[in-house]
Structure formats: C-alpha cells, structure tokens
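User: structure tokens for this one?
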Amino acid sequence: MLVNRAAVFPVIFVLITITKIGTGIPTSRPTVTNYDIRDAILQIVNVIRTTEDKLERHEYRERALGDQLKRGLSFIDKRVKQFEHFKGAITRLDERLAAVETILIQKEEKERLQSMKTFLAVDDIQKNLPLVMDDLKKDILDELSKQIERIPPPPPHPKPEITKTDFENLRNDLIKKVEKMNNSIVNLEKELKKTRADKEACEKFNKQIASNLKKIDTQFDNGKDLLQKYEHKLGEYKESTKESPAQLKEQADWQENFLKSLNEQKHSIADILSGVGNVSTKLNTLPKNDDIEKLNESTKNLVKDLQNSANVHTEKVIEVIGTKINDVKTKIAETNQEVKKTIDDLTNITKNIEVKLGENYKDIKTDLSSIKKTEEITIHTADNVLDTKRRLEYGVHQILGEMGQLMKTATKDIGETITDRFDVFELSVLDEENGALSNLTHKIGDDIDQVWRQIGIMHQKMNANAEILSKLQNQTDTYVNGSSDVMDNMKGKVAKITSKLMELDENLNYLLGRLMLVSHEFSQSKNGISKALDEIKGTFLEVQDKIKDSGPGPHKIDSYEEPDVSPAKK
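Assistant:
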C-alpha cells in the first residue's frame, strides 16, 4: 500500500500541473518546466525499481522457505522411519523380560521349597538326636540289668579272658567317634565363618551399589541439563525456520549424534541381554531338587547306619558279657562304674553338642535376619531409585552405558561367586564327613538366595530402563508431532504470503497500466503544450511587429482599418 501511495503522488502532481496549463495560458511564464517533468519521471522510475527489488527479495525468501520445508519434511520422514525399528525392539525386550520374570519366579519358588525341606530335616535331626541317645542309654542299661538278674551263682574263678585292654579298646573307639563329632562341629563353625565373610562381601556390594546410585543421581541432573539444552535447540530451530537457513546444518549434526547415541544404547541393551542369558545358563547348572533330595536321603541313611552299627556293637558287647560274665563277677562293679562314667561322658558330650547346635542355629537365624534386613534396605534403595528415575524425561543414552558396565561387573562377580561355591561344593561332596553335607546344603541355599535377590534387583533395573525407553519414545513422538504442527503453520504462512504477493502483482499490473496511460496523456499534453507555445510565440511576434514605433507621421495607410476600441471607452 505504501508503494502504491508513493507512486500515486507524483502522478497526481503531474496531472494537476497539466490541468493548470490546459485551463489558461499564463501571461508571464509557465509554472511547470521540463525539469519538473523529468524529476517526476525519475521518481516514478525509482519507485518501480524499488518495487522490483522488493519483489525479487520476496521471491528469494519464498524459494529458501520452500527448500527448507522440503528438507525438513524429508528429514522428519527419515527419522520417523528410523524410530519405527525401535518399537519392534522394545516389544521384543518386553517379551524377553516377561519370560525372564516367569523363569526367575519359578526358580525362586523351587529354591524356597528346597530350603524349607532342608530346614525341616535339620530340625528333625536336632529334635531326634537327644531322643535316640536316651533310647540307646536306656536299652544298654536294661540289657545290663537283665543280664545281671539272669546271672547264676558264680562258679570257681577261672582266668579272665576279657581284660582291661578290651575295655580300653572300646573306650578308644568311643573317644574316636566323639572326636569325629567334634571335628564335624569345627567344620560347622568354619562354614559359619565363611557365611559371615559372605555377609561382609554382600555389605561391601551394597555400599558399591549406593555409590553407583549417587553417580546415577548426578547423571540424572546431567539429563535435566540436556533436556533444557534440547528445548533451547528446539526454540532456535523454530526461529531459524523464520530467519536464516544456515542453522539447519547444526540441527542435522545434532540429530545425527542423537541417532548414534541411540544405536549405542541398542548395543548396550544387547550386551545386557547376553549377560542375562549367561546368568540364566549358569543358574541352570545349579544343583536340582533331585540332587539335594539324594543328599538328604544319603545323610538319613548314614544316620541309620550309625544307629545300626551302635546297636550291633551293643549286642556284641552284651553277648561277650553274657558268655564271660561268670569270669568277671569280681570286676563287675568296676566295669559298671566305668560304663556309667562313659555314659555320663557321652551324655555330657551330647549336651554340649546340643548347646553348640543351638548356638549355631541362633547364629544362622541372626544371619538370616540380617540378610533379610539387607534385602529390605536394597528394596528400599531400589524404590528410591525408581522414584528418582520417574522424574527424568531424557538422558537415557548416558545412563545405559554405565548400567551396562555395572551389569557386566555384577555378572562377572556372580559368575565368580557361583564357581567358587561349586568348587567348595565339589570338595565337600568328596569329603568323608557326614555332617558337612547338611551344612553345605544350608550354605548353598543361602548363596542361591543371595544370587536370586541380586538378579531380582537387576530385573527391577531392567524394568525401569524399559519404562524410560517407552517415555523416550513418547517424547520423540510428541516432538515429531510438534514439528509437524510447526510445518503446518509455516505452510499456512507461506500460503498467506503467496496470496499477498498475488495481490501485490495485481496492484503493480494495475499501476503499470495507469502509468502507461499517464505517459500517453503526458506525451499528448506535451505535444499540445509545444503547439500552444509555438502559437503564443507567433502571436507575440505579430504583436511586437504591430507595436513597433515607426516615428512621427505621416504614415502610409494601405487600407482603412477601424481602430480597436474597448467597450469601456465607448
């Protein structure tokens, strides 16, 4: 509109001057000269040139905007196609995680049942040991009393065939058996020390987890900073679509880096899944329920063999005493006292064994309670981690790298612990001691519980990572939708600009037509003015010729002419 006004003013000025010239011929000199007309024409030419420059600029901007829109749409289409692959990968990850969850839950239930069976077997052994010892004591005393009652009057003293050496041998056998029991108790204490050492190792591992959680918090803060930078870059991208196309290169580079980070996350997730597969294969190599039941049956059979051997030895002693009782009447009181002493020693030993077993059982209970507390602490920390992770909206590609490293180290530690436990288990199986087998079953059950707890924590972390990936996908979808909306708005603006340019073209065409008419009229007026000026010059010359002083008369008069007389004089 300003261009039209600037172009109209000189045209109006020219028309006004032409009308003034046409209305009347001035007496002194004309008000409009050729210089004024030239200046007006130059102004019109300048206005036309400025309008042409502006039109060229608008066309250049339209071309640049069209190129930017084409590039942006092609780039967005490529990125949308690339993100479609992630949907399939995420669904596969969810399916695999669900399968791993089911396997872990089944194995946890099996291990709990096995541990319950082993605990019940140990409780039965603890309850039945004093009863068995009391029954043996009663049977021995009853048999001795019966044999004493059945003894006939003593014949003449023959030479004693059973000497003190035989009783000493029996005593030594009993002492050896007691020493074996003490050795088994010592082995129990060693195993308890090992469990305490494992507990300390678990505490160290929990400390490492706490430090890693602190690192993750710092990384979460870095993720927030990245989100702010991403929003800032989006604002710059919106401004760049309006102002300059040069910033598209930086945006493309940043998006390429983002895609590279996503590919690295893919590889890290694949490594994590391979680690989980290795852990599952190692867990499949653990001893099954059948093996543990076989071990329990072997321990029960060994206990029964011990009972039978004890019964056989008592029967043999009774038979020897029955056959040789006539020869040992004189020394029966001493032997009875020695037997009573040995029985008292056995009762004291059994009581000590029961006390030690009770103390060890209390220690095991305390260890289990402490392990439960550590499990609760780890679960609480895991909940805190999930709460902090829910606050994040972006930054997964940095966290997954360190999580992958932690998973690798954790799987290595678990593999090493499992191999160590299996080595100890093999050594204990080859050992001839009977008590070590039950203790090893307890220890293996505790270690497997710890391993399953660690795997459960790892599984929770994997679920959290899957949630973060889903959030990231939703964010990318929202950003893509926002960019499409921006592109739609840009299309509307471009359509408005094109409509305005069409109107401007129409106005310019109209203005050029008017200018052509004005120039034609101006040329006609110029020709008319030149003719009028020539006529005026001719009239002025005639008047000058008539007005010339010819001096005093007489004057020759060719013909009679009436003088010009004004009406006022008449």
